[in-house]
Amino acid sequence: MTLIETDDRSRVVLPGRPCERFLLQENSDGSILLLPAVVISQAQNEYDQSPELQELLSRAAGSATVHTRRRRAT
């Protein structure tokens, strides 16, 4: 087991888990459960949940009228 202590600002260090995000769930018995989390934008979530939107955007990106100008570094 690993002892985890909070600092004076209620922060903890989780050994071996740098730069990760978690959802915290406090259970009625006082235990704390950390669930790994991924944060995505509302727009990304809408895209992921909508096959119609994915198809529409794929067709639009592949359209001959869509082009991107790129400047070469000099």
Structural notes for this entry:
The protein has 74 residues and is an alpha+beta fold. It has a domain at 20-63. 26% of the residues lie in helices and 14% in strands. The chain has two helices and two strands. A two-stranded antiparallel sheet has the order 1-2. The N and C termini lie far apart (57 Å). The model has no long low-confidence stretch (mean pLDDT 89).
Contiguous uncertain segments of 5+ residues: none
Order of helices and strands: EEHH
User: Share of helix among residues?
Assistant: 25-40%
SSE-based structural type: alpha+beta
Topology overview:
Blueprint: E1 22-26, E2 32-36, H1 42-49, H2 51-61
Task: Describe this structure in a few short sentences.
The protein has 74 residues and is an alpha+beta fold. The protein has helices at residues 42-49, 51-61; strands at residues 22-26, 32-36.
What brief labels describe this structure?
74 residues; alpha+beta; two-stranded antiparallel ribbon
